Amino acid sequence: MAQTTYIADIAKYLGQEVTLQGWIYNSTQKGKLQFIMLRDGTGIIQCVLFKGNVSDELFDACLALTQESSARISGTVTEDKRAKGGFELQISGVEILQVAGEFPISPKEHGIDFLMEHRHLWLRSALQHAVLRVRHEVIRACRDYFDNLGFTLIDAPIFTPAACEGTTTLFETNYFDEKAYLTQSGQLYMEAAAMAFGKVYCFGPTFRAEKSKTRRHLTEFWMIEPEVAYCDLAMDMQYAEGLIAYIVERVLDNRQEELKRLERDISKLEAIQKPFPRLDYDDAAKILKDAGSSFVYGDDLGAPDETIISQKYASPVMVTHYPADVKAFYMKRDPQRNDRALCVDVLAPEGYGEIIGGGQREDDLQALLARIKAHNLPQEAFDWYLDLRKYGSVPHAGFGLGLERTVTWLCGLQHIRETIPFPRTISRIYP
RNA sequence: UCAGGUGUAGCUCAAUCGGCAGAGCGGGUGGCUGUUAACCACUAGGUUGGAGGUUCGAGUCCUCCCACCUGAGCCA
């Protein structure tokens, strides 16, 4: 096949004859004049066809082009203010590959269930396209951030023998004659990797069988999880803050067009600056009490509580030192206050909620053993993990950033389900 | 799991007190040389989520079930 010309590069071909390969996004006819909006995955361009410029047969064939029909369209690139994007293709030839059947998704409005049922086709629409391009930029930014800091990417397994926390939120599956679970976090494996490589991260899908039906939950979502040896909570928070600031910067630099299409208020992203506000649990509790929340001191923060706190600041907020009882067994306790965990949650602005959870890990063997017992966890399952405390244990810390929640926030979306190509929720595993 | 809501044409939604099942879009046909979700005319398109019940009469009222949406809890 000949070298493809893409719509994204169309300005380079002004005045030249090119052939574009794509799909009909929309078309309008006006008697002897046709406008065909062609998309090719990199952009959309208006193609103009006058009767008389091509054969009557071809003109009539183009009239029959339906939404999402596939075609190669040749013509001369011109500049025209009347066209969206400023460029047009004056059609000289059309090679129709397929005339599509009636496309289910029209340019008019649709309900969410209908769109999700047609997710495989919905991906072609401009807004979904924009969201997934932002997602791609966020993924690249995460990788670049850690790669540039000398981290090593270590992939965590997806089949796991036991839970990180309780088994109620795990998807169980058969593993030959045994039970296995889909991973809920790569963290424990990253701790092993950090003891080998110093600075590591993993980036992959994780699975939670939580029966959550909210705009913030998926049963399958992607997390980036760094883990660093010889790292304390303060340093961990610097990494978290640095990562988020870098992601925001990259998206603002490279995805302006997509953010505009999503009608995102870009000034809200531009306002984000290091250092992020830092609150400890008691500070947060005071804010909630003053705001009249039903929050109970000693409990974890609820979703409405996170909204109250995050809306007080322009940048993401870092909340630290939660009561150890509401956090996972592997969290290290604060030596100053033994009932507090050396942990941090990062809350996205504008009420988007928690996007990062992390902290310093318990590095003392006896303390960890006691914690496993207290949480009624099967010690055998953690023998390998306990080995990490027997052979050169060091202070270490890490966190997990939820990719889809981050993208939801950056795009200013109402719901997380549009930020992953094929969302899995409690009520959907199709398509 | 709990609470609230929704379910009517391919899609998005109307239908007053229980009284003829309707519109826009999309589809089809015709018209139009600057359309941007074009416009104009005509046209086809219905097991009102399912099962029972009340009634002369049910999209509408009652019971049960199903699906989906939103939120809570839990979490990223």
Model description:
By secondary structure, the protein is an alpha+beta fold. Helix content is 30%, strand content 26%. The model has no long low-confidence stretch (mean pLDDT 92). The protein has 2 domains: 7-98, Nucleic acid-binding proteins (OB fold (Dihydrolipoamide Acetyltransferase, E2P)); 119-419, 2-Layer Sandwich (BirA Bifunctional Protein, domain 2), CATH 3.30.930.10. Strands 6-10-11-16-15-14-13-12 form an 8-stranded mixed beta sheet. Strands 1-2-3-5-4 form a 5-stranded mixed beta barrel. The protein is elongated, with a radius of gyration of 26 Å.
For the largest beta sheet, what order do the strands appear in spatially? 6-10-11-16-15-14-13-12
Overall 3D geometry?
elongated
Mean pLDDT: 92
The CATH topology of the largest domain turns out to be BirA Bifunctional Protein, domain 2
- Distance N to C terminus: 32 Å
* Strand-pairing-aware structural class: alpha+beta
Summarize the structure.
The chain is an alpha+beta fold. It contains 13 helices and 16 strands.
